Amino acid sequence: QAAPGRGGYAMYTGGQEQENTRRLALMGDLYSAIRDNELELYCQPKVGMATRKVCGAEALVRWRHPRHGLVSTMEFIQMAEQAGTITPLTNWMMDAAFSQAHSWREAGEDWALAINLSAHDLYDPGLVDRIRGLFSTWGIPPDRIQFELTESALMTDPAAALETLVRLKRLDVKLFLDDYGTGYSSLGYLQKLPMDGIKIDKSFVTPMVSSGDSEVIVCSTIDLGHNLGLDVVAEGVEDQATWRRLEGLGCDIAQGYLISQPMPAADFPDWAGAWARA
Ligand code: C2E
Ligand code: CA
Ligand code: CA
Ligand code: CA
Questions:
Q1: From which domain of life does this come (predicted)?
Q2: In degrees rounded to 5, what are phi and psi of residue 61?
């Protein structure tokens, strides 16, 4: 933090410069990490609340830096987004996710895999064609791949975003509005989007049993979603009490540490087998 006076300012500048240098170095490393295949695909299960069955997983990227160890996903995703260079990472993730979804099908599993898209991806004119190419390469039924998009990504340029969503829907993929509740989209805007579902942000779900305000928001979001014909996913389900409350409210799908932390994709089938037996 900057202390008042000249000395404080100098210190602040030094810290800022150091931080900028560190971030620049990390960004450089990220692109060689993508090239050298140092990123890892993690999967976090999604479970149907009524059936208790695993219906799929969210694909989450992990980066194990050879010197710094595991880098915070939030940090390097945000950095890549701010630098406007998320595309190589998105492409890496899509390749990894389609290949993973293909092996699941070979093993006879029907799980859907959800891929996160960033704002920048939505405005990338090559995105939809690349996805179409992946479907023809891997032969996966379109509804087995989902995309999660945040409200803030859509709000950057709503008209252009809507166009991309419409083109994606023509491929028959499933679209989910991510982090619902953290943005400012109006009901009118939501209705215009070709969404299949919404994910209620964990900042409302995790504290909902102890905080009346959060519970009201979760409850009305579930109703809103259902009234619009959408599937509702709750993320950040961390305990039994929250599961029971969500079940009572008719929430469709749950995701969170109560069910499992994200795990290396290779561990997913064994985990799902154990879940089914439990
Ligand atoms: P997100 O899309 O909202 O993903 C959910 C995040 O919540 C994940 O963090 C997950 O590990 C965490 N989480 C899951 N269950 C719980 C829970 O019960 N409690 C709590 N406190 N947290 C839980 P993660 O993996 O660190 O990812 C952070 C964010 O980074 C993601 O948030 C997403 O916005 C972004 N991200 C991750 N992978 C990708 C990717 O491949 N592409 C893009 N564009 N973004 C990604
Ligand atoms: Ca997500
Ligand atoms: Ca989310
Ligand atoms: Ca989030």
A1: Bacteria
A2: -85, 145
Q: What are phi and psi of 174, to 5 degrees?
A: -100, 135
| C-alpha angle 212-218-224 in degrees, rounded to nearest 5 | 135
Task: List C-alpha distances in Å: 233 to 173, 191, 200, 222, 237.
Answer: 17, 18, 6, 9, 10
* pLDDT at residue number 82: 86
List average pLDDT for each run of 10 residues in the chain, which is 278 residues long. 42 69 84 90 98 98 91 92 89 97 96 96 95 97 96 89 96 95 74 93 96 93 94 98 98 98 98 96
Crossing angle between the packed helical segments 87-106 and 127-138, to the nearest 10 degrees: 20
How far away, in angstroms, is 7 Cα from ligand 1 center? 39
Alpha carbon nearest to ligand 1 atom 14, residue: 256
Cα(278)–Cα(269) distance, integer angstroms: 14
Name 109's Cβ contacts closer than 8 Å, sequence gap at least 6: 269, 272
Residue nearest to atom 35 of ligand 1 (CA): 74
**Ligand 1 atom closest to residue 237's alpha carbon, by position in its atom list:** 18
Structure-token pair, residue 146: 């989902």
Q: Collect all residues with Cβ–Cβ distance below 8 Å to 214 and sequence separation of at least 6.
A: 203, 204, 205, 207, 208
* Residue 183 Rama label (left phi>0; alpha psi -120 to 50; beta): beta
* Residue nearest (by alpha carbon) to ligand 1 atom 43: 116
CA 203 to chain centroid, in Å, comes to 15
Half-sphere CA count of 168, side-chain side, radius 13 A? 29
Rg (CA), the chain: 20
230 C-beta closer than 6 A to ligand 1? no
Using CA atoms, how far residue 170 sits from 34, 79, 146, 164, in Å, is 30, 31, 13, 10
